[in-house]
Amino acid sequence: MNINSKLPNLGTTIFTVIGQLAKEHNAINLSQGFPNFSPDFKLLQLVNKAHLDDFNQYAPMQGVLSLRETISEKTESLYGTFYHPESEVTITAGATEAIFTSIAAFIKPEDEVIVLRPAYDCYEPAIELFGGIVVPIPLIGSSFKVDWDALKKAISPKTRMMIINTPHNPTGTLWSESDMLQLQEVLKDTDIILLSDEVYEHITFDGEQHHSVSKFSDLASRSIICSSFGKTFHVTGWKIGYCVAPKALMQEFHKVHQYNVFSVNHALQIALNEYLQSPEHYLELGNFYQKKRDHFLNAIQGSRFEAVPSAGTYFQLLHYGKITDEKDTDFAERLIKEYQLASIPISVFCGSEYNEKFLRFCFGKTEDILDQAVEILHRI
């Protein structure tokens, strides 16, 4: 059969490649972003109860209303913007589905989408799948700041969407209030849709605050905001998240969502709604992960790796420029094969032109695993 691929140049995701290589070499896996510890037993009990209470058939397409009401209340409490639970909140099969559905709903052939690199690897293939044109803007230097002049020049009459991510994967940086206000000014008087990936919204450190685009009126009016229960409650395998957006945007989102997944696991929605009634379950998340970040950073002191402490997410970049001139993909592969330690090379999020010496490590692990990893890092 002659197959005319819609994505002829797309290979297997780096997470699958590294994961398979780590398994082959019995490596400690600090690559893909998933915790190696169990979620709160209370949440598991609530899921079990929901199953036993027979919430085992289809949920409503938009999601269980009580959960959407809770999300609306949570969002307004944290960020000051009200999203109507009946028309502006949708439960999704993970944040990735929310991102894919948003792109599918709005991007047509030849539409331009601005993507800030390094960028999570699900954005660009989805844009290309629907005929859109990726307009990449590299973040500046080792601090990964927005190049505002380059961003302004990149906007054209064909610009349909811009994608941002804060707290940022893979760099662990945060958008400041000043950044958001500047973005609001840049996008003012345009019809550009903003897709905001905020899956690590509750994982920030050192007293820093997450600035959701929903806090800024003009940005909120043009934005689809994606969040993740999987990241927040250590249940990445559940693949459940949500998005909020103004009614006009959400109506278009639903046109795709209803034929993409239709609805999401009913029992999990019932359990999550109950669990969210105690805000400490997400408000204390930053402190929980900061202890792990600090443990990891303190332990690598004296090694040849250099680090600027992550401001959010559960990822830490380590700079290896004092160790080798190897390309990050080659060094990451050698770490797995020779030292049995897996990480993610940053260039896979940036394009072929990127040649900085960074690897991304996930510190969302138990201390014994982090200590084993650090012992290896000290030997390199």
TrEMBL record:
Every Aminotransferase class I/classII large domain range: 27-376
| Pfam families in the record | Aminotran_1_2 (PF00155)
Q: Which GO molecular function entries does the Swiss-Prot or TrEMBL record give? A: transaminase activity
Q: Which domain of life is it from?
A: Bacteria
| Keyword Transferase assigned | yes
Q: Which UniProt keywords apply?
A: Aminotransferase, Pyridoxal phosphate, Transferase
Q: Look up the record and name the cofactor or cofactors this protein needs.
A: pyridoxal 5'-phosphate
Task: Tell me which Gene3D superfamilies the record gives.
Answer: Aspartate Aminotransferase, domain 1, Type I PLP-dependent aspartate aminotransferase-like (Major domain)
Which InterPro entries does its entry note?
Aminotransferase_I/II_large, Kynurenine-oxoglutarate_AT, PyrdxlP-dep_Trfase, PyrdxlP-dep_Trfase_major, PyrdxlP-dep_Trfase_small
Q: Which NCBIfam families match?
A: PRK09082.1 (NF006569), PRK12414.1 (NF009079)
In terms of PANTHER family, this protein maps to:
FI04487P
What name does this protein carry?
Aminotransferase class I/II-fold pyridoxal phosphate-dependent enzyme
